[in-house]
Every structure is written in structure tokens, then in C-alpha cells.
């Protein structure tokens, strides 16, 4: 149970670090007030209602208001990561050293109990001295 919890916690922490450092952009296309499409990785599909501006006819200059809106939301990741460990301050170095020392035994497999007296048989009991002398430790 402890190993399973440890693996789950490790994966969660790795995902938190990954998601906090990655930047991404969400593109959305609205036609009026209705969301038509949104995309994380590519271009959004349009609804086909965009106004086509014809630059050839300069005598008829009618400008229609476009009902479609393209929205782009950019979420910036964390860029200022401190990855160099030799430039840590003294307090931070002490904390890292204490943390590693305290948690080092979590990753070491426990050794089997070595019993050197396993094959040894005690001598035969000739008489029970404690019962004969009526001396008992309480």
C-alpha cells in the first residue's frame, strides 16, 4: 500500500511540474454568441459566415460588420525555474541534505533477518535449577 501511494504521489508531482511549465494557446471561433469551435493544437474551423472583402471594386465601398469573432487565449508557463543546485543558499543546502538523509531509508529494501543461531541446538536440560531452588524473576 505504501509503494502504491508513493508511486501515485510521484506521478502527481511530476504532472504538476509539467503542467506548470508548459505554455499553451486556446483558439476559439464564435459566430455571434455561439461557440463554433475551439482548438489547442491547430487552427479552428470557421462557420463560413465571414465577410469576404473584395479589393477589386473601389467604387463601392460598403463595409459590413463581421459577426464572427476569433479569440485567442494564451496561458504562459513558468519560465524562471531554478535548476542549478550548486547555487543554492546555505539554508536550502541544509534542507536538501536533511531531507535526503531522512528519506534515504524509504528506498532501501529491507534485508532478511540473519539468524546466526538458526542451526544451533541448546544443550539438553538435565534439571531445572530455577524450580529446584525456587528462584523466579518477577
TrEMBL record:
<feature type="signal peptide">
    <location>
        <begin position="1"/>
        <end position="25"/>
    </location>
</feature>
<dbReference type="InterPro" id="IPR058512">
    <property type="entry name" value="DUF8199"/>
</dbReference>
<dbReference type="InterPro" id="IPR058060">
    <property type="entry name" value="HYC_CC_PP"/>
</dbReference>
<protein>
    <recommendedName>
        <fullName>Secreted protein</fullName>
    </recommendedName>
</protein>
<keyword id="KW-0732">Signal</keyword>
<dbReference type="Pfam" id="PF26622">
    <property type="entry name" value="DUF8199"/>
</dbReference>
